[in-house]
Amino acid sequence: MKELTNKVALITGATGGIGRAAASRFAEEGAKLVLADLNEDAGESLAKEIRELGTDAIFVRTDVAKPHDHERLVAAAMINYGRLDAAFNNAGISDGPIPPGFIDYPLELWDRLIAVNLSGVFYAMRAQIPAMLKHGGGSIVNTGSIASQIGFAGVPGYVAAKHGVFGLSKVAAIEYGSKGIRCNVLAPGIIETPMTQAILQNKQAHDMTTGGIPAGRVGRPEEIADMALWLCSARSSYANGACFTVDGGYLAQ
């Protein structure tokens, strides 16, 4: 049997590199999909592609920085499919290729990073957990980063938000583990996606971020999607409150 047969899975940031790869993998494994993103045209196109492959999918335009959008997103899952079994809270933004130093870091950039990358995950879980409890639980996977565990100069907003995602996930795991809900963090290293394109094309940033990867290369979105699938499936049934790093060995040093 496929890993997610008869399961309903929600993915935010669904049209980006990792989100799109996850949508494809989840669909292959039988999940009914609720796709969320700000890009309406790309989201509707992705949902159509998935339906044409024989899997149920809907798209809901979602600004993850707005609590009401998450409530509307989960309501769409319940109205269309009657349940929510898995959520991959993957939407996020970066500081840019080379932001200014700490004391010159723009306040508006700080506010935006925290709103999307941290508050957006809190709003998501706040809406998703009640829906999962109605049917005995589920699995929540939040996209963190190697920056959930270590610091990087020049990106205080991103590092603070990703550290916060790990903390939020631990709290949810503790509070709801006994009620059938697991919450874990998936922490990629540098992955070749549209969001990292500017970094990888900038020589200084590229050398700083990729020079020390033992695998000798950046990761592929499909490699992160496979881990997200595992964490959303029953095969990871005893994994809760943990951070799963997929970084080619970067943090092993």
Structure description:
This protein is α/β, with parallel strands linked by helices and 253 residues long. The chain has a single domain (8-245), classed as 3-Layer(aba) Sandwich (Rossmann fold), CATH 3.40.50. 45% of the residues lie in helices and 15% in strands. It has 8 helices and 7 strands. The protein has helices spanning 17-28, 40-52, 67-81, 107-133, 156-176, 197-201, 203-210, 221-232, and strands at 8-12, 32-37, 57-61, 86-89, 138-143, 181-188, 243-246. A 7-stranded parallel β-sheet has the order 3-2-1-4-5-6-7, with helices on both faces. Helix 5 (156-176) links the parallel strand 5 and strand 6. Helix 1 packs across helix 8 (221-232), helix 3 runs parallel beside helix 4 and helix 4 packs parallel to helix 5 (156-176). It starts with 7 loop residues before the first strand and ends in a 7-residue tail after the last strand. The mean pLDDT is 93. GO terms for molecular function: oxidoreductase activity. Belongs to the short-chain dehydrogenases/reductases (SDR) family. Keywords: Oxidoreductase. InterPro entries: NAD(P)-bd_dom_sf (IPR036291), Sc_DH/Rdtase_CS (IPR020904), SDR_fam (IPR002347). This is Short-chain dehydrogenase.
